[in-house]
């Protein structure tokens, strides 16, 4: 996974598959929006740690890996930074349960990559695409277990914005029917595409992994 040229030649032949996935994820997002979603509550720090421990167990089980070094978890209170993984620490906003849990899964996946999946960790698009797959898996698991589709909302918004960003980058004449699929994250992706002259690492990696199936 490398520069714009390589990405273009890898993804261009899959344009119709990208369209198909955009329709699928966009339709799911519309369906979720019509529901009265319950995102649950936000948690005190001690409860965050308990939830983080559960999510770490879920992610480790899914990936079949247990890292040697532990990972800390903190709220980003007072810092303007969004959710990140850095220095064996996951730092998240005070998010409601249905957004918090998939976000913790995504960031903790970066810890496992850092500890034991170096080839994945060292390539930004690979790193983010792989973390999206785990985020989605955990979102689906909790949505099923708690019978709550709100868990699917955030990752589906990301999927729509990221697939669409790649689609618009690849396509000279985008199909207007696909432009009705909108995500609150479109603006972030549009800015990234303008700045980098190619989609974000999240968008490229996520699209690559979605196509891989
Ligand atoms: Zn990430």
Quick take:
By secondary structure, the chain is mostly helical. It has helices at 4-11, 15-34, 45-63, 97-116, 118-121, 124-145, 153-170, 186-196, 201-212; strands at residues 72-75, 84-86, 89-92. A three-stranded mixed beta sheet has the order 1-3-2.
Q: What's the structural blueprint in terms of helices and strands?
A:
Layout: H1 4-11, H2 15-34, H3 45-63, E1 72-75, E2 84-86, E3 89-92, H4 97-116, H5 118-121, H6 124-145, H7 153-170, H8 186-196, H9 201-212
Parallel strand pairs: 1-3
Antiparallel strand pairs: 2-3
Zinc ion is lined by residues 106, 110, 128, 131.
Tell me about this structure.
The protein is mostly helical. The protein has 2 domains: 1-38 and 151-213, no CATH class; 40-147, Arc Repressor Mutant, subunit A (Orthogonal Bundle), CATH 1.10.10. It contains 9 helices and 3 strands, in the order αααβββαααααα. The protein has a 3-stranded mixed beta sheet. A hairpin with a 2-residue loop joins strand 2 and strand 3. The chain is globular. Bound molecules: zinc ion. Zinc ion binds at residues 106, 110, 128, 131.
């Amino acid at each position: 996974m490398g520069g714009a040229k390589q990405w273009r030649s890898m993804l261009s032949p899959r344009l119709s598959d990208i369209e198909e996935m955009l329709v699928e994820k966009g339709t799911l997002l519309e369906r979720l929006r019509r529901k009265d979603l319950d995102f649950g509550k936000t948690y005190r720090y001690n409860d965050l740690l308990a939830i983080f421990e559960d999510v770490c167990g879920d992610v480790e089980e899914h990936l079949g890996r247990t890292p040697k070094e532990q990972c800390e978890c903190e709220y980003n209170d007072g810092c303007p930074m969004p959710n990140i993984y850095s220095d064996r620490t996951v730092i998240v906003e005070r998010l409601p349960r249905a957004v918090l849990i998939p976000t913790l899964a995504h960031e903790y996946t970066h810890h496992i990559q850092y500890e034991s999946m170096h080839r994945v960790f060292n390539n930004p698009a690979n790193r983010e695409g792989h973390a999206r797959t785990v985020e989605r898996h955990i979102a689906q698991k909790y949505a099923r277990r708690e019978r709550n589709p709100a868990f699917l909302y955030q990752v589906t918004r990301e999927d729509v914005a990221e697939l669409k960003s790649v689609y618009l980058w690849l396509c000279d004449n985008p199909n207007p029917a696909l432009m009705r699929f909108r995500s609150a994250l479109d603006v972030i992706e549009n800015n990234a595409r303008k700045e980098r002259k190619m989609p974000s690492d999240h968008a490229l990696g996520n699209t690559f992994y979605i196509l891989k199936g």
